[in-house]
């Protein structure tokens, strides 16, 4: 890859040899290009849909009890070779591990999203910051909100 900003440093990356992931779903957002993605997701952002693949649909049982979910996703369009980056919003350079940039050796994104609804194999959420079509690695209730919502009072 040759799109390197001033003062950035790239390295040759080794061939993967040790991990196998199962993509459990696909994320659908209105963001078609990286420049369209918000820098951080926001709960007042657009509704996005998450399609869960078979055979993982039964794993959604009980998820509707939570207000927020943490998503782990694979940033499949991100480059993986930069160790020093020059973010577009800054004149300084930073090591990759000092940034939340999608450019990482293992481009795993995380976000805590507001869970709007669960309908069969589809989740509707708000607060995402990834491209349309991003593969989903995992999801779980937000660790800060691990207690399910209280049942409605009669």
UniProtKB/TrEMBL annotation:
Cross-referenced Pfam families: TrmO_N
UniProt protein name: VirR
PROSITE patterns: TSAA_2
Record flagged with keyword RNA-binding: no
UniProt xrefs under InterPro entries: TrmO-like_N (IPR023370), YaeB-like (IPR040372), YaeB-like_sf (IPR036413), YaeB_N_sf (IPR036414)
Keywords: S-adenosyl-L-methionine
CDD domains named in the record: UPF0066
Keyword check for Transmembrane helix: no
Family, as annotated: Belongs to the tRNA methyltransferase O family.
Highest rank taxon of the organism: Bacteria
Residue ranges constituting the TsaA-like domain according to the UniProt record: 21-151
Lineage: Bacteria, Pseudomonadati, Pseudomonadota, Alphaproteobacteria, Hyphomicrobiales
């Amino acid at each position: 890859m040759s799109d390197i900003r001033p003062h950035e440093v790239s390295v040759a990356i080794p061939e993967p040899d040790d991990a196998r992931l199962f993509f459990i779903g696909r994320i659908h957002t209105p963001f078609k290009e990286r420049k369209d993605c918000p820098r951080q997701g926001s709960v007042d952002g657009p509704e996005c849909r998450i399609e869960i693949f078979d055979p993982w649909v039964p794993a959604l049982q009980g998820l509707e009890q939570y207000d927020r979910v943490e998503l782990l996703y694979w940033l499949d369009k991100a480059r993986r070779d930069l160790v020093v980056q020059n973010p577009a919003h800054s004149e300084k350079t930073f090591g990759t591990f000092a940034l939340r940039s999608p450019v990482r050796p293992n481009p795993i994104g995380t976000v805590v999203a507001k869970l709007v609804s669960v309908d069969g194999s589809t989740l509707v959420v708000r607060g995402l910051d990834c491209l349309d079509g991003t593969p989903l690695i995992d999801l779980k209730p937000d660790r800060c909100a691990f207690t399910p919502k209280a049942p409605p009072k009669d």
